[in-house]
Amino acid sequence: MDTKFLQELGLHTENAGTSTGQNSMDSGQYIESYSPVDGKLIGKVSQTTREEYEQVMATAQEAFKTWRMMPAPARGEVVRQYGLKLREHKDALGRLVSYEMGKSLQEGWGEVQEMIDICDFAVGQSRQLYGLTMHSERPSHRMYEQYHPLGIVGIISAFNFPVAVWSWNSMIALICGDVTVWKASEKSPLCSVACQNLLRDVLKENNVPEGVSCIINGDYKVGEFMTKDHRVPLISATGSTRMGKIVAAEVGSRLGKTILELGGNNAIIVTPSADTNVVLTGALFGAVGTAGQRCTSTRRLIVHESLFDEVKEKMTKAYGQLRIGNPLDENNHVGPLIDKDAVQNYLNAIETVQKEGGKLLVEGGVLEGPGYESGCYVKPCIVEAEHDYKTVHTETFAPILYLIRYKDMDEAIAYHNEVPQGLSSAIMTNNLREAERFLSHAGSDCGIANVNIGTSGAEIGGAFGGEKETGGGRESGSDAWKAYMRRQTNTINYSTEVPLAQGIKFDLD
């Protein structure tokens, strides 16, 4: 395989993983990154020691003193230039994402495009960090609110979106005047080094202080350095619900703030009026895109009994046409799972749901032979299941789709909302009343609810996040920037008297 893209991104056999803006440190202990595409070693990243972490934090704290005082539009200009740098290296970075994580090349390029888009969004946002002006009840007084940067924002990202989720957080945090420390997944560490290499050049060109953007590398123990650190007022963490509960408890114990983007168990409701061709397209990509390793992947297809057989037939036929293989080959639709642990979880879920009574409509299994040497390639499968199976209520990060039958809209919404997760949702319908009900207070309980598109593929302009065990956080667009700042209410008295609020009298003789 041609790996020139590694050299373009400044990646070599070994990479010093702890980085403070322009400088990097090498602990001599390494995380090895193996590609799920072919099982080969891509490179090694230095693990962050406690001493290196302390150096990173000191450098970040010092950088914050300068960065916060730069006008927000000036900070936006630095982010704009980073967006240009990403455009220049989109092909190479997209290939790295595909090779290190295993998603299709189209999805790898798409993830880098998300980074570019959020840079553009952040640039505009840098001139729109608005507060409100309020009328005071006291004469000759003015009230308003403003937003100030928090300080150091800790970002913990997952393997499935190894660059985009960091950019959602980091680009918005940067225009808000924060500095960032990023711990990427130990399953895709080279992507973080590549992003930092590109950003380092932009920071140097703008004489931005070292430490505005830093990376640390390691397993959950390195992440705990940040979650327990009072110097980090905000932790944005993406990962499993189990991980999120630990982070929330640790950060909450010190009264810090969290943005949590956790598990999803997303469903599409298919009503009698649905266009089954639209259903097919939306459900297929949602279920098999990124080999089912998106937090927004479609796990459940809840189909009205009048369309059940038709949808089952079309989905089964479509699955038979999927091409599984090297994701850097654009002819393939589905790449590998991230590692063999993920493969085992996939196999366990299929075995368990069958014991519960599930019927395999499209059989799963591990692929073997030439091109599948990594042992991480599996077959996307479809299971006809009942809505209340324990396995159906559990998120399995793999391409398993549960096909569920329902009788009426009340039943469909009940089935939809009964799982503990609440990230993304969709309804396929041409009935206005059904669509509006799904979007109403009595409809989907998820943070994202769509009509006639699938659950996967959110745009950066809207706030991204979910409810219940998904964590309740919001990232990316809309007014998500407010989470990265502290709100301050100001009152100015321009009179010669000091009247108290609520008409309280406190007169002295």
From TrEMBL:
Residues covered by the Aldehyde dehydrogenase domain: 27-489
Stretches the record annotates as Disordered: 9-28
Domain of life of the source: Bacteria
InterPro entries reported for this sequence: Ald_DH/histidinol_DH (IPR016161), Ald_DH_C (IPR016163), Ald_DH_CS_GLU (IPR029510), Ald_DH_N (IPR016162), Aldehyde_DH_dom (IPR015590), ALDH7A1-like (IPR044638)
Swiss-Prot/TrEMBL keywords: NAD, Oxidoreductase
Residue ranges with Polar residues bias: 15-28
EC number of this enzyme: 1.2.1.3
A molecular-function term among this protein's GO annotations: aldehyde dehydrogenase (NAD+) activity
Keyword Phosphoprotein annotated: no
Active-site residues, Swiss-Prot/TrEMBL: 261
Family of this protein: Belongs to the aldehyde dehydrogenase family.
Subunit structure: Homotetramer.
Protein's name in the database: aldehyde dehydrogenase (NAD(+))
